[in-house]
Structures are given as C-alpha cells and as structure tokens.
C-alpha cells in the first residue's frame, strides 16, 4: 500500500483513536437500547398503577354493596314488624269499635238517648281510622323508598360486573404486554452481548484491525478519514438491523 492512501494508518495512536470511536459508537447503541427498556418498564408500571386503582374502587363498591344489603335486610325486618303491628292494631281497633258501637247502641236503646252522641263517637272513630291510614301511607312510602334503594343496589351490582370485566380485560392486556416486554428484554440482552463481542467476532472489525497492523506507517490524518468512513458504514448497518428489530417488535 502506498503512503498517502485513504485507508492508511500510522502508529499505536491511530489504533487508540479507532478503538475510542468504536467504543463510543457501541456505548451510544447500548444507551439507546437501555432507554427503550426503561420506557417499556415505565409503561408497564403505569398499567399496574391503573389496575391497582380499579381494584381499590372495586373494593369500595363491594363495601357499599354490603352496607346496602344489610340496610335492605334491616328495612325488610322493620317492614314486617310494622305490617304486623299495623295489622294487629287495625284488627283490635275494628273489634273495639264494633264492641264500643254495640255498647253505645245497647245503652242508647236502654236509656233512650239521642243519636247525636252516637254521631260524635262515630266521628271520633273515623278520626282514629284516618290516623291509622296515615301510618299505613307512611309504611307504604318507606317500602317504596326501600324498593328505590334496591334499584340502586342492582345498578351497583351491574357496575360491579362491568368493572370485573374491565379488570379481566386489563389483566389480559397487561399479561400480553408483559410477555412482549420480556421478549424485547431478551432481544436487548442478546443485542448487548452481540455488541460487546463484535470487536472480536465481527468480520469488519477484524478486517480493520488487520489493516491497522498493516498501515502502521501511514499518515494519522488519512487514518482518521478512513476510520470515519468505516464508522459511517457500520452505523448504517446497525441502523438497518435496528429497523428490522423494531418491525419484529
């Protein structure tokens, strides 16, 4: 090889310069791979956080459902008690009214009293009946309120089922993304090993190393230009490989 050739090298300094640029290039490539891995880990952490929030909300809904269920049971028990009290009271009132009216009728017939007293008694009895009907309406309103709460409970149950379905879907997606992240990690680890072993195994690197040994006596400026050309060529090949890996991912 003639002196001044573009691929000529000169001395140990040229070899140090070459390996410096080659090491810098490999460090940049490894840094890019690490950044991709960190980004995937951050996305996975975000998905896990969203899953935890939905689980917490699901637990709150479960507690709310349990409280409403207990309240429903209590209201049903109160309803049964009130209905029994109302039925017994109404029955007693009717019996007392019938007995009272019978006694009044017998008394009036026996002593010949006027009918005005009987009318007053009937009016009083009617007032008491109205009070009982008012209590019955109150019980009816409470029953309707309990039915509304039951509707809310059913709505919460439906929402709970939807959340369970969303949770199942999210878990499936997270498992799939976790598998993808593991595959990407394996690819990155393999690429890392490959890059670290490239100076000892790659044909181009071995060829350049041999040329360095041959062209030790050449000009340093020409060596730098040749190294720059080789680095650009290797960078182009690495970009092509990265594009292929990205398409596979």
Task: Write up this protein.
With 249 residues, the chain is mostly helical. The protein has one domain. Helix content is 92%, strand content 0%. The chain contains four helices and no strands. The protein has helices at 11-111, 116-201, 203-214, 220-248. Helix 1 (11-111) runs antiparallel to helix 2 and helix 1 (11-111) packs parallel to helix 4. Residues 1-10 have low confidence and may be disordered.
How are the SSEs ordered, and which strands pair?
Elements: H1 11-111, H2 116-201, H3 203-214, H4 220-248
Family: Belongs to the CCDC172 family.
Subcellular location: Cytoplasm
Protein name: Coiled-coil domain-containing protein 172
Range of helix content: over 70%
General shape: rod-shaped
Number of strands: 0
Largest sheet descriptor: none
Cα distance spanning the termini: 46 Å
Spans of at least 5 consecutive residues with low confidence: 1-10
Number of helices: 4
The assigned structural class equals mainly alpha
**What does the radius of gyration come to?**
46 Å
Following the backbone from N to C, one meets helices and strands in this order, namely: HHHH
What's the number of domains? Answer: 1
Strand content: under 5%
Query: What's the mean pLDDT score?
Result: 75
Coiled coil: 136-198
GO cellular component, one term: cytoplasm
Main location: cytoplasm
Protein name: Coiled-coil domain-containing protein 172
